[in-house]
Design a protein that fits this description.
- The complex is a heterodimer of chains A (507) and B (500).
- Chain A is an alpha/beta fold.
- Chain A contains 20 helices and eleven strands.
- The longest helix of chain A has 24 residues, at 479-502.
- The two termini of chain A are 26 Å apart.
- In chain B, helix 1 (3-10) packs antiparallel against helix 2, helix 5 crosses helix 19 and helix 11 (209-225) packs across helix 12.
- With 500 residues, chain B is α/β, with parallel strands linked by helices.
- Chain B has a four-stranded parallel beta sheet. Chain B has a four-stranded parallel beta sheet with strand order 8-9-10-11.
- Chain B contains 21 helices and eleven strands.
- In chain B, 49% of the residues lie in helices and 9% in strands.
- Chain B folds into three domains: 1-35; 80-111 and 206-490, Metal-dependent hydrolases (TIM Barrel); 116-174, no CATH class.
- Classes of the chains: A alpha/beta (507), B alpha/beta (500).
- The interface between A and B is large, with 73 and 78 residues.
- Bound molecules: zinc ion (2 copies).
- Residues 109, 111, 348, 375, 433 of chain A line the site of one zinc ion.
Chain lengths: 507, 500
């Protein structure tokens, strides 16, 4: 173990420069304690082969260098600042460049409508027949239509292409893009506003985007593009969360709600055909947690239908929206308890800083309702019984570090509870929640920030590999497909290691 | 940790019907609440009545914040909301509550700018302004280096055009408080620089012997007024001096402590006293450390009843890690009790972080801060096994740039796991906080569970005596006196007093 050997070197150094030496028993106790701790950490069980060991040395060379520089000059340490203030510095990092090229397995917690970057969304506004207007409170409304849409709107409907050609198209596009993202170049105005205000902005963006992408031809393009962005970030499999929306055609035809999962499945199949080293997509059907029992029941029934029709495409069910403001799981309990034999659950739970509140208690219900994985589980660290339970029942925690930072839970990511989850060796998978909204990589930023800002300075390639493996292990794939994913992953992993070995440590 | 109990509860997790479900849920929540700190305290009827009043106001505050997070102050910098604390009813109750002991405070950070500014009105104080503020008591202009001119403070003040402004400028040197903390203190580097500068400025003024004696006496008084009955004070033991330039060795400083404590106790019979933890700077070599340890042992010999033990201070990230001194510290471990600062850092996996390991292996009786402990499950196990008190200083950690939104402070996990926590205030004067009440308040309403109640507060107060360095007989006596004060607080409690 690299860690222990470093420590031993240190000891030898001390013993030789000092008249007094450290008693052997102390050294033994110390190594013993530290080793027990290292053995618990996520990734410690992995044994690296010779090539991996060499690659690890290169990786750790850069990691130690970056961290030591920050340690000496904490005023330049990015991760204690807002993500928006350092996001543009990330590509310069050697460690990031390595992680970017690393196969990362699966993304298990992402909301499909918020996967795609603002630039690509902007491209979709170049589609023909797109009309736009603004409602009373200045929110954008989109509608694809042959003629001027008949929907009432505060302003009149205009063709977006007409608007764009009226003046400076670049400026127009820039301002349009602002409706698709929280990121505006810096944290100005973001890092001091309260959590409800951030969420309001977030849900606004989410609404604008979903209006753009429920037009059937755009849905297809959008989803294919999104898969492509993820694929290019070295992701091999995705479980998307999505509400069931009614897609429509240019002539106004509206499809039923099962049309959308079918279309997603078909696009995923097409993408797979075009990219044989991509393993596929599954769907977790979601509903907003503010809805009534009746509305939620409807979606649960629809999810049952999706399951019947496309059993291998449906992963399960979840509730979404700001946990603090939404209904708690225990409030909807009878309904959820009744459906738990038909549907697997992947609940968001404990995405909050409010300890001892009903939001916080969602964690208990997520576990008691048999959730296969828990989204965020940010508050878990405050619940010793649940920490035991997730370990005992091997319930994976879907951690989204950048999301938690942007959505106002934590400022300095070194205070993120993930550090403790990694130290305890809990079943963690890293994901990215809504990377399009904050302009993050599909997954590489989350991996990089976790590796450099949250995990131990000594955590190495084994952690990264274990996180990738976990994303496969805790996916919903059946055994056969899991094997297929493992095999794609390992092939890519070997190529990746070879690539790292061509990097030098003295660039 | 309490693995067995919890696994039993979760066994056959999935309930068959709703009643069974809620029953199971209730039992798990209940068992978690019992595990948390204070969970085993039973309240008598009178206490239960006080608790109802306390929780009425706590729920009102917390639920208002939950519904209106833009008014939740504790996710911002302490300096931006400290003025609002005084209006809280929960705070006022906590102020009146006996809080036991303050076990982690540094002598020169005990009193705030108001008090320090008053000292500058004493005779024989010389001042010199260059990039820094230099202060020294003397009967003739001092010779110590300064780029400006030494003059008597009274003269400088009177010859300034504007005395109010002069004093306001002076006061700024005696506090870290600013109106725009995020601009002035963008990172831990700026905060610690300002923090160190504070000590460099005030030390020469405070270590004039008569001032030192008065200062410490008044500090004890101020703490007592905040309903604290006992202190363990960390000191670097500065060399005291006289007007004529006589400089004493640190042993005299220690003896001064003993004398002042004795005087104070004579004047305040219900005060339990104070002890001294010798805590010199950690950024030294082994030769210097040897001197420290020798001095510690001498003090112990001279005044074993006042001397509690040994510690090292200064920003942990920049100082020598404990491992550097292990041979020496281990050798002295049989003679000295250790109360090490450890893990006061956000840097996971660094040598600073490993101070936690060595502090525990060196047999520390308590750990100062232990902020990084949740990242070290095995050290945490040792803490439980050896029942090592954790001295948590919430406001200090916020002001000194470890955490911004206080709800992310690891204390919440410590409390949930029922770890042996004591609350303290580190250097309350430097950030103009109360001796202890504000730390208690913030921990109670913002760090602890919404559901934590009077039992937590009582347990924290009891812990502060339980984990003190008092010998067992004095401890029993201390707890008896605390109970007396506590019952007095409960008996005299009048909820309507806090109504407006
Ligand atoms: Zn999510
Ligand atoms: Zn301290």
């Amino acid at each position: 173990m690299a860690f222990v050997s470093t420590t031993s070197v240190l000891f030898i150094l001390f013993i030789s420069i000092s008249g007094k030496s450290i008693p052997n028993s102390y050294i033994e106790n110390r190594i013993n304690l530290i080793e027990r701790e290292v053995d618990m950490q996520l990734g410690s069980e992995l044994v690296l082969n010779d090539d991996e060991k060499l690659a690890n040395e290169i990786l750790m060379h850069w990691k130690q260098k970056e961290i030591e520089e920050s340690f000496r000059n904490p005023q330049y340490f990015n991760f204690s600042k807002h993500y928006f203030d350092y996001k543009n510095d990330i590509p310069k990092s050697k460690v990031y460049q390595i992680i970017r090229g690393m196969p990362k397995g699966a993304v298990l917690h992402v909301h499909s409508s918020l996967m795609l970057s603002a630039d690509r969304l902007l491209n979709l506004t170049y589609e023909n027949n797109l009309y736009m207007c603004k409602n009373e409170i200045g929110d954008l409304q989109f509608r694809f239509s042959e003629d001027i849409p008949k929907w009432p709107c505060h302003t009149s409907w205009v063709l977006l292409s007409d608007l764009r050609s009226l003046g400076d198209a670049t400026k127009f596009d820039e301002s349009l893009k602002n409706y698709f993202t929280l990121f505006s170049g810096s944290s100005r105005g973001c890092d001091k506003i309260d959590i409800n205000t951030i969420w309001r902005k977030f849900e606004k963006i989410s609404n604008v985007i979903s209006q753009l992408i429920i037009y059937r031809p755009v849905t297809e393009k959008f989803f294919y593009e999104a898969l492509n962005e993820f694929y290019n970030d070295n992701i091999q499999y995705i479980e998307i969360r999505s509400g069931l929306k009614s897609l429509y055609e240019l002539n106004g035809t509206v499809h039923d709600k099962l049309y959308m999962p079918r279309l997603y499945r078909d696009v995923a199949e097409r993408f797979k055909r075009d990219h044989p080293d991509f393993v596929g997509v599954k769907l977790i059907v979601t509903r907003h947690r503010l809805k009534t029992d009746e509305e939620i029941r409807k979606t649960i029934n629809l999810a049952r239908q999706v399951k019947q029709e496309m059993p291998s495409f449906l992963a399960g069910f979840d509730l979404v929206g700001q946990e603090d403001l939404g209904r708690s799981l225990s409030d909807i309990l009878p309904l959820l308890n009744e459906a738990k034999n038909d549907l697997k659950y992947y609940f968001h739970g404990g995405e909050t800083n409010w300890y001892g509140t009903s939001t916080d208690e969602n964690l208990f219900d997520a576990v008691l309702l048999g959730s296969k994985r828990i989204g965020h589980a940010y508050g878990l660290i405050k619940h010793p019984s649940l920490l035991m339970a997730v370990k005992q029942y091997d319930i994976a925690l879907e951690v989204n570090v950048v999301s938690n930072a942007v959505l106002g839970l934590v400022h300095d990511v070194r205070n993120h509870p993930l550090a403790t989850y990694l130290a305890l060796g809990l079943p963690v998978v890293l994901s990215s929640d809504d990377p399009g909204v904050w302009g993050a990589d599909p997954l590489s930023h989350d991996f990089y920030i976790t590796f450099m800002g949250v995990a131990s300075k000594r955590a190495d390639l084994r952690l990264l590999k274990q996180l990738a493996i976990n994303s496969i292990k805790y996916s919903t794939l059946d055994i056969k497909n899991k094997e297929a994913l493992y095999s794609v992953f390992h092939t890519k992993w070997d190529v990746f290691i070879k690539q790292v070995l061509t990097l030098s440590t003295n660039l | 940790m309490r693995a067995v109990i919890f696994i039993l509860f979760f066994y056959s997790v999935y309930a068959s019907n709703i009643d069974e479900y809620f029953d199971k849920r209730y039992r798990i929540l209940k068992s978690e609440s019992r595990t948390s700190l204070g969970g085993n305290v039973t309240l008598n009827d009178k206490e239960a009545a006080v608790n109802i009043c306390l929780m009425h106001y706590k729920f009102k505050e917390v639920d208002y914040w939950f519904d209106n997070p833009r008014y939740f102050n504790c996710s911002r910098h302490y300096f931006t909301y400290k003025q609002y604390i005084k209006t809280s009813k929960v705070y006022r109750i906590i102020q009146d509550m006996p809080k036991g002991a303050a076990l982690h405070v540094h002598d020169m950070g005990l009193l705030g700018p108001h008090y320090l500014l008053n000292i500058t009105y004493q005779d024989n104080l010389y001042v010199c302004f260059d990039n820094n503020l230099h202060l020294l008591f003397a009967n003739a202009p001092p010779k110590s280096p300064c780029d400006g001119k030494w003059q008597l403070m009274n003269k400088a003040r009177n010859s300034s055009n504007n005395i109010t402004k002069f004093d306001a400028d002076l006061r700024n040197h005696f506090t870290l408080f600013v109106k725009n903390p995020d601009t002035i203190y963008p990172s831990i580097r700026e905060t610690w620089r300002a923090f160190m500068k504070f000590f460099i400025t005030v030390q020469p003024m405070l270590s004039y012997r008569p001032i030192w004696e008065q200062y410490f006496y008044d500090a004890l008084k101020r703490f007592k007024e905040d309903n604290i009955m006992y202190l363990e004070v960390r000191s670097i033991l500065p060399n005291l001096y006289e007007l004529d330039g006589t400089v004493y060795d640190p042993l005299v400083t220690a003896k001064t402590y003993k004398k002042v404590i004795k005087n104070f106790m004579k004047d305040h019979r219900d005060f339990l006293g104070a002890k001294l933890i010798y805590a010199p700077p950690r950024k030294v070599d082994r030769v210097k450390l040897e001197e420290y340890l020798e001095l510690a042992k001498r003090i112990k010999q001279d005044m074993s009843d006042t001397f509690a033990g040994f510690d090292l201070v200064g920003q942990e990230d920049l100082g020598s890690p404990l491992i550097e001194f292990v041979p020496q510290l281990l050798e002295s471990a049989s003679e000295l009790n250790y109360f090490f600062h450890a893990g006061e850092t956000d840097w996971y996996g660094t040598l600073t972080d490993e101070n936690l390991v060595d502090a525990v292996l060196l047999g520390a009786k308590r750990l100062g801060h232990a902020y990084a402990l949740p990242k070290h499950p095995q050290v945490l196990n040792e803490v439980i096994k050896k029942d090592i008190g954790l001295e948590v200083n919430v406001i200090s950690n916020a002001v000194l740039s470890l955490v911004r939104d206080i709800r992310n402070h690891p204390l919440s996990a410590f409390l949930a796991h029922g770890l042996p926590v004591v609350l303290s205030s580190d250097d309350p004067g430097v950030w103009e906080a109360d001796p202890l009440s504000e730390d208690f308040y913030i921990a109670f309403v913002a760090v602890a569970s919404r559901l934590s109640d009077l039992r937590l507060l009582k347990q924290l107060a009891i812990n502060s005596l339980k984990y003190s360095a008092l010998d067992s007989i004095s401890k029993v006596d201390a707890l008896r006196k605390f109970n007396y004060k506590w019952n007095e607080f409960i008996d005299n409690f009048d909820c309507s007093k806090y109504q407006n």
